[in-house]
Amino acid sequence: MAAAASSALVPRPIKRAGDEAGRFWPLALGAVGVVYGDIGTSPIYAFREAAVAAAGNAPVTEAAVLGILSLIVWSLMLLVTLKYVLVLLRADFNGEGGTFALMSLAQSVAQRGRATLLLLGIAGAAFLYGDAAITPALSVISAVEGLKVMAPAFEQAVIPLSIAILVALFAMQSRGTSRVGAFFGPIILVWFVVLAFIGTVRIAENPGVLAAFNPTYGISFLFSNGLIGFAVLGLVFLAVTGAEALYADLGHFDRFPIQAAWLGLALPALTLNYFGQGALVLANPDAIANPFFLLFPNWALWPVVLLTTAATVIASQAVITGAYSLTRQAIQLGLLPRFNVRHTSEEMAGQIYLPRVNWLLLVAVLLLVIVFKTSSGLAAAYGVAVTATMIATSLMAFVVLRRRWLWPAWRVALLLVPLLCLELTFFFANTIKIVEGAWVPLAMAVSLAAIMLTWRRGTAILNADARADADLHSLVAALEKKPPHRVSGTAVFLTATPDAAPASLLHNLKHNRMLHERNILLTISTAEVPRVANSERVEVETISETFSAVTLTYGFMETPDVMRGLQLCRKRGLNIDPAATSFFLSRRTLRRSSRSQMRPWEEKLFIWLAGRAEDATTYFQIPPDRVVEIGTQIAI
Fold it and tell me: Sheet holding 514-526: strands in order across?
């Protein structure tokens, strides 16, 4: 899948996995199942779509078959093997990879242009959601379409059966992925072995197809077919969709197991299968209708369809859980409002479930299935999302290679400029399919980017207004001179602006006219790193005898847990008794203002998003019976 794929499936190893020989092969097997589930199912439809487009209404030619195979194999070599496996897997941010990790890494070393890097990160993430919606729909439909090869009468059952499988898949998400994840590696391992075996059998029948390793066949095909060749190039890109998962899952498998799984299994198996399909079509041009399933003898179709369906469900599972992880990162980075995050495993912190994301994604997937109806229809929509993400990744990689790795400019350009040109070519080749379906990921990405930018701007305005309203230290000094009535216990006031007095504190003083014996101003901060060690999580500042400021810092791949965080304060000399502690939260009701700094549509969108944010008590994992909420109205 795209850049966050399946990062919620497997926990990050405590130690670097590549340094432990005993963990290497289990992690490599896990990488086979989780990382390569998406790209591993591309042979079901990638070659077929490109060959059908190249043939049009005429029989497919040998030049077209060899040209398409050449484009596929060199796309795998350059975009997947060179860019992701050999280069980007080395660009980890505290051991983590993915769109937001690369963005944060680039921002940490950028001398200027941090805002541009933020926009690139948002764009890449926004397109990933389009990939997350299209992948399950396309993969499952393409697998179920194998039934038509056995009997044309099954055609009417493809859509209902695909919908049933997808609904069941999304309905199971709340149970977690630990049990299912244990079977991912072995099933996809069998899948790749089957791909390689049947491909080898067909190549042996027509070994001349191996000539397609010569890149001149691909170049000749593009230049001799004009607009048709350009359109076919966009469909060839289907063969590399899912490459972003290599980088996104870096923190969970480490570089060496991922590289070994690709170079030792996935790449050879995919290459053999694509060439096997080409050999079949050269021998029997009519096989272009569905070359993947026609590779197999009739007696093997039932088990192959079942295996294919299992593989596509695994690919979809990885994409879905990747969307959860991506959303949590966006929330932590302040790009989305709080959503309910449920942890589905006590042992594996990375396994999470976001109900709203799950059901919104299901609705999007079902709409795609109902509207497009076939895998061919969905294929037109697929490439735009992935190519746009790859372009954003390459642009951010420029900064990392130049500023972090200190490569000379000529070396960075020598590596990335050709790759970027290739990705841009793929992108524009896919945009000519706008009317046929490429508008879907574009529309989704624009909408999601608008939501992220609006939320970020709105929260920045609110925080700036809060700082201007009441200076914390002035208020504390005034309370020390003229103390209000005191009550026993500890009060914790959550605030997003440490230097400003929280609205909940001000309203408590105004209406209740009292103050606790000990008061803690708690700020939840997100660091520009994936995870923060417990030893660095807590910062305590003594403001006065009765006031302290506590900052809990979490990485953008972590979910805040206030109670556990406050327990760490004991090591900083601040002992907090949960039974004698009350948490004061502000429940803000936003209303429109004639003097708003936001455009009218931004203002409406921000207020709507704020009204649907997850309750702070639930999100920060605060005991509900210890919470006091104080409502305030704020003009935005």
Answer: 538-542, 547-554, 514-526, 485-494, 581-591, 627-635
Task: Please give the full DSSP string across 453-509, using - where no structure is assigned.
Answer: HHHHHHHHHHHHHHHHH-BHHHHHHHHHHS--EEEEEEEEEE-S-TTB--HHHHHII
**Domain match, 517 and 368 both:** no
Q: Is-contact 531 557, C-beta < 8 A?
A: yes
| Six-digit token string for 349 | 């912190």
Q: How many CB atoms lie within 10 A of CB 13?
A: 18
Other beta carbons less than 10 A from residue 161's beta carbon: 17
pLDDT tops 70 at residue 13: no
Q: Is residue 445 part of a domain?
A: no
Residue 436 inside a domain? The answer is no
* Domain termination site, one of 375, 401, 416: 375
φ/ψ of residue 632, rounded to 5 = -140, 150
Per-residue pLDDT for 453 more than 90?
A: yes
CA neighbours closer than 13 Å in the CB half-sphere of residue 551: 13
* pLDDT tens per residue, range 523-555: 999 887 888 898 899 999 988 888 999 999 998
Beta strands at 342-343 and 352-353: parallel, antiparallel or unpaired: antiparallel
Among candidate residues 528, 524, 534, 523, the one with its CA nearest the CA of residue 557: 528
Print the domain residue range for 577. 470-635
- Letter string b/e over residues 404-424, b meaning 16 or more CB atoms within 10 A of that residue's CB: beebeeeebeebbeebbebbe
pLDDT tens per residue, range 213-264: 999 999 999 999 888 888 899 889 889 988 887 787 777 677 898 899 999 9
The structural domain count of the chain equals 2
Residue that is last in its domain, among 343, 375, 407: 375
pLDDT, one tens digit per residue, over 393-411 is 999 999 999 999 999 999 9
User: Are 608 and 615 contacting, i.e. CB atoms less than 8 angstroms apart?
Assistant: no
Helix (H) or strand (E) holding 138: helix 114-144
Does the pLDDT of residue 420 top 70, yes or no? yes
In-domain check, residue 344 = yes
Looking at the fold, whether 343 and 480 belong to one and the same domain comes out as: no
